[in-house]
Design goal:
The complex is a heterodimer of chains A (about 170) and B (about 100). Chain A has about 170 residues and is mainly alpha-helical. Chain A contains 8 helices and 1 strand. Chain A is about 75% helix and about 0% strand. The termini of chain A are far apart. By secondary structure, chain B is of the alpha+beta class. Chain B is built from 4 helices and 5 strands; from the N terminus they run βαααββββα. A 5-stranded mixed sheet of chain B has the order 1-5-4-3-2. In chain B, helix 1 packs across helix 2. Chain B is globular, with a radius of gyration of 15 Å. The termini of chain B are far apart. Classes of the chains: A mainly alpha (about 170), B alpha+beta (about 100). The interface between A and B is large, with 42 and 46 residues.
């Protein structure tokens, strides 16, 4: 299903809720355990559960703080969601967990490409390095901003109205 | 809410806004969005992340990649824009594509 996204955290909240619903579903869905034929599949699903729960907890923590996850965290979530998707594709169980991961991958890919313009065809190690570089640069920009603001006097802090601002910009 | 600009901001941002239509459109949209909000909760609901800038209260950072804004919330009904940056995210992909060849 195509997603029309703006680069906001609505998509991240959506992912968090989806993972929450699905992981709760697995834990409580007892009919799976009654069928011994799919025990191996269940083991596989269980093996990815900690991963899904980790993603859920990270997003829960970040969103509770009204904080955006770092780009490195977003890339890690995308990579693990992608690997879960491949694994689930090989399972014969009819379970909508696959749809959830497909949705997570689509949403995150759109979000990351649109916001950071990363080339998502790069290998995972390179992507993590890119994300780390982005986060480091963000921290550096923060430091530069703080230094600049410390040096500001009343003249720099004086305000102009938005009308004055745009008039000055449009005059060139 | 009301939007004002720090005087210094005009000098720092003019070049970026004249060169990048994308940046200019975003800043205009940001202003319009803020003006349509009654309070900061509504701003957050519109998808703008506002985080305090460490040790610089009442300065805050708005994360909306690839844009980055520094705002000053002097009164609950007014936001002053202090800094606006369009991060050159294109270079990340380009650098890496070169490396792979």
């Amino acid at each position: 299903m195509p997603h029309t996204l703006t680069a906001d955290n609505t998509s991240l909240r959506k992912i968090y809720h989806k993972i929450g619903e699905q992981t709760r579903g697995i834990v409580t869905n007892r009919h799976i355990t009654r069928d011994s034929g799919i025990k191996k599949d269940l083991e596989k699903i269980n093996s990815i559960l900690p991963n899904a729960l980790l993603i859920r907890d990270v997003l829960k923590y970040k969103l509770a703080r009204h904080d955006t996850p770092s780009v490195e965290v977003l890339i890690e979530i995308l990579l693990s969601a992608k690997s879960n998707l491949y694994m689930l594709a090989s399972l014969p169980v009819d379970y909508n967990l696959y749809d959830t991961y497909e949705e997570i991958v689509t949403i995150l890919k759109t979000y990351i490409e649109k916001s950071f313009h990363f080339d998502l065809s790069l290998d995972p190690k390179e992507l993590i390095t890119l994300a780390k570089n982005w986060d480091e640069e963000e921290a550096q920009l923060d430091q530069e901003t703080i230094k600049k603001l410390d040096g500001w006097g009343p003249e720099e802090k004086a305000s102009i109205t938005s009308e004055q601002f745009w008039a000055a910009i449009n005059e060139g | 809410m009301k939007v004002e600009f720090h005087a210094h901001f005009l000098k720092e941002t003019r070049e970026l806004l004249l060169q990048s239509k994308k940046a200019k459109n975003f800043l205009a949209k940001f202003q319009k969005d803020i003006e349509s909000c009654r309070d900061l909760t509504e701003v957050y609901e519109k998808g703008y992340h506002i985080e305090p800038l460490t040790g610089q209260k009442p300065y805050c950072k708005v994360k909306y990649p690839p844009f980055r804004l520094i705002i000053w919330i002097e009164k609950p009904d007014t936001i002053h824009i202090s800094e606006f940056v369009l991060r050159d995210s294109q270079t990340y992909g380009k650098k890496n594509r070169k490396k792979r060849k």
